Automatic annotation (TrEMBL):
UniProtKB keywords: Hydrolase, Membrane, Metalloprotease, Protease, Transmembrane, Transmembrane helix, Zinc
Known cofactor(s): Zn(2+)
Name of the protein: Putative zinc metalloprotease
Keyword Phosphoprotein in record: no
Enzyme class: hydrolase
Annotated InterPro entries: PDZ (IPR001478), PDZ_6 (IPR041489), PDZ_sf (IPR036034), Pept_M50_Zn (IPR004387), Peptidase_M50 (IPR008915)
Topology in membrane: Multi-pass membrane protein
């Protein structure tokens, strides 16, 4: 056993070392090809190249071949080619008449030759970036598609009417095919809104206008990538189980196994994750037969039939007060009926909300009455006259309730069949007789905090990945009752502890175990699914080159958009990464495969090309500006101008290095 453990540790260590070496080689190649461009064209123009270095600063290793010293230097932020008559550390050489007398010096060459030498590194990076991309597409790259997974309730995409399973095809006139395209197009757009085109899950085409919001460091629309039909693999789930403890899926017979691929439900073939969600939501109270494809260690596949019963909500017996409507979807039944943000629903079909009907059940109440006219009374605050009552009539769509869940903090509850979302106020209106809260909580109590606690004696962490209580605060800035209620459904083995305030007295805590409802069922069964990925693979070398060219153009364009958005502050500098962050990401990508690493190296190559050609002294773009000036005026810039510009450029570059290293260490962590 000890030998087996030692062998496993050694295998992991060797694998890690191999990945580190591959990353180091890859990053070194990106720099090497850039400097090779300068070096090759300089030699072609018969310039005396004194040193070819990978890295800056003190030389660690060097050897001389011919007239050139080849060096590996300490600081791995780039590299340089030192030519006779061109030295960023001594810009006065560019105006030295003595150096210019040597026909093999850089400054003795004409302007077009020097332009060719300066631009060669950038051109080489563009070529190698294209080839990195082409190689990756030849191998096949796994990427998340442009289908939407979770569309967060109340966020811009949700308000625009987008749903899980919708596929975006175009944003602001640019084609999108991957989820990464959606993230970049959103973060890098300069306009107030995004005009999107796509295809709904049911096949209908749509157009929508989305107004992104700034979320910390960049603009977002509130979406996640979609999941597939395969259960999460063993290494990505707690305790090696792809089902949540205590759920219907966890109790299924025979049991699910990590990596199982769901093929059909009750004999009905599935066409994607959205189809799985919709079927389970529409049959929430039924026992469902899952047909899964299972692959064993020998790569042999078999079909397995698994029976999964319904799963009731874990309930407390508390009816909370309903809050105001936080968001209304564009084009929804609610918008057509006249509901507005800020309205408070007080009565539905002559039922008082919070007294005759639990606000938590409203998603199901409306969904079960799809196609029927439902009378709704709302209170609306109006200027100068206070709250006024409005009678409205709404006809819900056939969309199951609770299919959109409050799975993140401060998320309101969605009633998707009519297109509204509302928060709950942590004031208890009613306690059901015989419920877990009966005798411990009273109507009028204010709940300040929710703790989800594991029973005493629990030794293994659950889905929350810790043994400590999960603490959820409830106040005006943390409207988290819905989030707490949903976490109660996820963490099936946890009890609940409430901190309550009664009649203005000091806070007190009560603890109880939720019970599972026998007539109100969840739309899920407790299965953890993997993210969906699709392969972008060229059928021929020519197609790989074509895809590489397209990706090169898009990458370069995105880099310029990034720079623009940094200047306009639509993108925070905290999104930047330095050498530590780049190495970390490269290592993570290398673990996914050589194709993914090649894509990353291609992106770095294009980054190096674009950034190095910015008009900043000491960078290639700065040198090009001086050459353009010389070509137009027929005279070199003065030594004073060159020295001042070089110091300014060097100060800028060094400041940027310090900034990104600071971000790597203290913001992103490494």
């Amino acid at each position: 056993m000890a030998t087996l453990i030692a062998a496993s540790v050694l295998a992991v260590s060797l694998s890690s070392i191999q990945n580190i070496l591959i990353v180091a080689l890859g990053l070194g190649l990106v720099i090497f090809f850039h400097e090779l461009g300068h070096f090759a064209v300089a030699k072609w123009c018969d310039v005396n190249v004194e040193r070819f270095s990978i890295g800056f600063g003190p030389i660690l290793l060097s050897w001389k071949w011919g007239e050139t010293e080849y060096a590996l230097s300490l600081i791995p932020f780039g590299g340089y080619v030192k030519m006779l008559g061109q030295d960023d550390a001594d810009p006065s050489q560019l105006t030295s008449e003595e150096v210019a007398e040597d026909p093999r010096s850089y400054i003795a060459k004409n302007v077009p030759q020097r332009m060719a030498i300066i631009s060669a590194g950038v051109i080489m990076n563009i070529i190698t970036g294209l080839l990195f991309f082409a190689f990756a597409f030849q191998q096949g790259v796994e990427v998340p598609p442009s289908e939407l997974g979770t569309v967060f309730v109340g966020k811009p995409a949700w308000e625009a009417g987008l749903r899980e399973g919708d596929r975006l095809t175009e944003i602001n006139g640019r084609d999108v095919s991957t989820f990464g395209d959606i993230i970049r197009a959103t973060a890098l757009s300069s306009s107030e809104y995004l005009d999107v085109k796509g295809v709904h899950y049911d096949g209908g085409e749509f157009e929508a206008r989305i107004f992104p919001t700034m979320n910390g460091t960049r603009r977002e629309i509130g979406v996640e990538p979609i999941r597939g039909l395969a259960l999460a693999p063993k290494e990505f789930v707690p305790n090696g189980d792809a089902t949540l403890a205590g759920t219907a899926a966890n109790k299924a017979s025979p049991p699910f196994k990590p990596g199982d691929e769901i093929v059909s439900l009750d004999g009905e073939k599935l066409d994607g994750f959205a189809g799985l969600q919709n079927y389970l939501a529409s049959h929430r109270g039924d026992t469902v037969e899952f047909n899964v494809k299972r692959t064993d260690e020998n790569n042999k596949s078999s079909d397995v039939e698994i029976t999964v019963g319904p799963q009731g909500f874990r309930t407390l017996g508390l009816w909370m007060d309903i809050g105001q409507i936080e968001a209304v979807q564009v084009g929804s039944p609610a918008e057509k009926a006249g509901l507005k943000t800020g309205d408070k629903i007080v009565r539905i079909d002559d039922l008082d909300v919070g007294k005759d009907i639990n606000p938590l059940t409203l998603p199901d109440y409306f969904a079960e009455r799809h196609g029927q006219e439902i009378s709704v009374v709302v209170n609306r605050e109006e200027k100068g006259s206070g709250a006024k009552s409005h009678d409205l009539v709404i006809t819900p769509l056939d969309i199951p309730g609770w299919i959109e869940r409050p799975s993140s903090a401060n998320t309101p509850l969605s009633v998707q069949s009519i297109g509204i979302a509302f928060h709950m106020i942590p004031t208890v209106l009613k306690v059901q007789e015989g419920s877990p809260a009966d005798g411990k909580v009273k109507a009028g109590d204010q709940i300040q905090q929710v703790e989800l606690v594991l029973p005493k004696g629990t030794e293994k962490p659950d889905i929350m990945d810790k043994l400590d209580p999960v603490v959820i605060e409830l106040n005006e800035s943390n409207r988290n009752w819905m989030y707490a209620f949903w976490q109660l459904q996820v963490a099936n083995s946890r009890d609940i502890r409430l901190k309550i305030v009664r009649d203005g007295s000091a806070p007190e805590t009560v603890t109880f175990t939720p019970t599972r409802s026998e007539d109100w069922f969840l739309p899920t069964r407790g299965i953890m699914m993997s993210l969906l990925s699709v392969s972008q693979k060229a059928d021929s070398f020519g197609e790989a080159i074509q895809m590489g060219v397209s990706h090169t153009k898009n990458s370069a364009f995105d880099i310029y958009l990034t720079l623009r958005n940094l200047i306009t502050q639509n993108l925070s500098v905290k999104e930047l990464h330095g050498p530590i962050g780049i190495a970390k990401v490269a290592y993570q990508v290398s673990q996914q495969g050589i194709a993914e690493l090649s894509m990353f190296l291609g992106f770095l190559s294009i980054n190096l090309a674009v950034l190095n050609f910015l008009p900043i002294p000491v960078l290639d773009g700065g040198h090009m500006i001086f050459l353009i000036y010389e070509g137009i005026t027929r005279k070199k810039p003065s030594e004073r101008v060159l020295i001042a510009a070089t110091y300014i450029g060097m100060a800028f570059v060094l400041s940027l290095m310090v900034l990104v290293i600071f971000l790597d260490v203290f913001v992103h962590g490494f």
